[in-house]
Amino acid sequence: MDPMTFSIIRHRLFRIVDEAVITLKHVSGSAITNEGHDLMVSLYRADGTLLMGGVGFLHHLTSAAEACKAIIRRFAGDIHEGDVFLLNDPYTAALHTSDIYLVAPIHFDGRLVAWAACFVHVTDIGAVNPGGFAPQAPDIFSEGFSSPGIKLMDRGTMRRDVLDTILNMVRSPEMVTLDLRSMIACCNVARDRMQALIAKYGPAKVDDACARLVEQSEALLRARLRELPDGSWQSRQYLDVMGRTARVVLTMTKTADRLVFDFTGSDPQSPHSINCTKWAALGGLFAPLFPLLCYDITWNEGVIRPIEMIAPEGSIVNCTRPAPVSVATVGAIQSVNNAACTTIGKMLAASDKYREEATAVWHANHFAIFKFGRNQRGGYSIGILTETFAGAGGARSFADGVEIGGEVPNPISRMANVEQVEGTFPIRYLFRRRARDSGGPGMFRGGTGGEMAIVPHKAPDGGIDYVISGKGARHPMSEGLAGGWPGAPNSYIWVHAPEDGGDAPVSGAEGIDSLPGRRERVSWGVFPLRGRDALYVRWNGGGGYGDPLARDPELVRADVVAGLVGTASARRIYGVEITDGAVDAAATQALRTTIRQSRLAREAAE
Question: Where are the alpha helices (DSSP H) in 414-566?
Fold first, then answer.
């Protein structure tokens, strides 16, 4: 094949995925989809292997490949043009029941030539808790509707019996219908554009280009791995739920042109729904690998081939049925993602050529807070606080992390506007802003996370309820790199209004200190937000890079002026003395010497 034709077909495949993503967002009415970008669209070859991964949550690229293969096995001989299949069983391929995959075969001249796949987090799945994250679920049976594969559309016609059965089990059938129809529209666009591409160039030429694209990706990744140093790197993640701490342990070993991710040593599966299945763990490690090692390589089956995962069965990263997994995406999967990001970052930092590609962990601890109840118009609403998608950038080897800068596993994540949320739910924001001292200290500072507080507003029932799956706030999860400190952990505080009947807070000029009342830390379960109470949330910053004592004192001063670092932290962590708004150079040098000597004394004592 001539290079020009190959390049044109490759770019057309990219455009097919992009147009399908745009369709999905435009048809969807869910903020988690069109604002938070909790979605994925990708193309697969006829055998179900990944052909072209698109943007969105990258954890799903490999899991959707397994979903396609599961459908091929289950429906062999009964796959027709115009069919659309639904799969959301975590023990078959999905990450958790709320992330529904629709996979659609693409035919040309009556022959199966490819697949289109997409997912969204549907508004509700009928789990014991509204919204799909079910911290109160003891097992998979309590986590809502789950299918290892079912035909939703048969030869272009909706199967009303299947659709009605699904809608009969959810709390918000109208929104779930829109979720499913947005994915069907997405698959239709991908199928139509793929068929047009094949019609123009012919099935043989397009198939040849696809095969070459996979071979190219494999060759490019293997070549990059050969340039990186051999060795083993480790990372540990800690998840705290209801006073119990679970560990995710990773050793990544690079030899020649292969990478092995070994999770031996991770804790047994948890009684809480933070577990993940084998396919979910695989997606979790590829989510940072795609952008960190393959930023200039097409994400497809060729990238997967040099990678091996070892995940002991029965562990928190490869649980066995019927362990609960509804919080997996922000639980064990997130920790797998963080650990992989750290080990890859350590490997890159050990390379002279690729050191500038190294990054500390970005947004490491999603907070999953689903609001539910009657809204200000008397209807019923369910939805997530999309601030969890705002993220925080990890520090790089040459620069600070981006403030509220998203996350590595989803390059297009973002949070909804305040007006979007206040227009959907009977709440009012008191403040939403960057959180001081949240970015991990380092020679280069991690990007800050944020903080916010909400109160009920014009609520017919006096307020609403919310489901929180916060995994506690005891352990920072945004690991630093090369001596950098971790970002601050999350914090969730229920502020009980004063019993004397005083006025509800109207602003948050001083953050949580502006909120009167008794404070109660919450993190796991279902809670009310009613009357004059407030909910305060702080989300983690990114990890730092390098020793904080090596940071330019003028950068520390600028952070203090901008409100990103407190004066006390500047002195205690960075060893920078600021007097009358200026750096006291002599005092700073003396303070840093004292801190270094204290470190050496502690080291000698140990």
Answer: 418-424, 553-562
CA 466 to each of CA 158, 197, 371, 431, 491: distance values in angstroms, whole numbers, following the listed order: 34, 47, 4, 19, 16
Q: Is 245 domain-assigned?
A: no
Query: In the structure encoding, which two tokens stand for residue 41, read together?
Result: 């669209």
Is beta strand 84-87 parallel, antiparallel or unpaired with respect to 150-154? antiparallel
Helix (H), strand (E), coil (C) string for 451-483:
EEEEEECCCCCCEEEEEEECCCCCCCCCCCECC
Secondary structure (3-state) at 515: coil
Does some domain include residue 347?
no
Amino acid at 588: T
Residue 297 lies in a domain: no
State the residue range of the domain holding 581: 552-605
Name the DSSP letter for residue 62. H
Name residues whose C-beta falls within 8 Å of residue 185's C-beta, 6 or more positions apart in sequence. 23, 24, 27
* 3-state DSSP assignment of residue 465: strand
Give residue 341's pLDDT.
97
Residue 191 near residue 43 (C-beta atoms within 8 A):
no
Which of 219, 248, 264 is at the close of a domain? 219
Q: Which residues of the chain have pLDDT under 70?
A: 501-509
CB 390 within 8 A of CB 538: no
pTM above 0.90, yes or no: yes
Residue 331 contacts residue 239 (beta carbons within 8 Å)? yes
DSSP type of residue 489? P
